[in-house]
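Running this now, will post back.
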Amino acid sequence: MACNNGDHSGTDRYQCQKHLTEVCEECLGCKDPTIYCKFRPSCVIHFLEKERKNERKNERRKAV
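Update: finished.
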């Protein structure tokens, strides 16, 4: 099965509860991060996106 952004069939899938779409791990990211979403406090996509951002930030700090 393909995600909405292409055929990435070998990766995990996450469902956006607002747009009712599937996103694979490669394309993981909120479709509308600046627009209100009632699901955001419990959104797995938002949580993982935030976690990745923090990991990149920590890696940059360690490199300096």
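The chain has one domain: 13-63. More later if anyone needs it.
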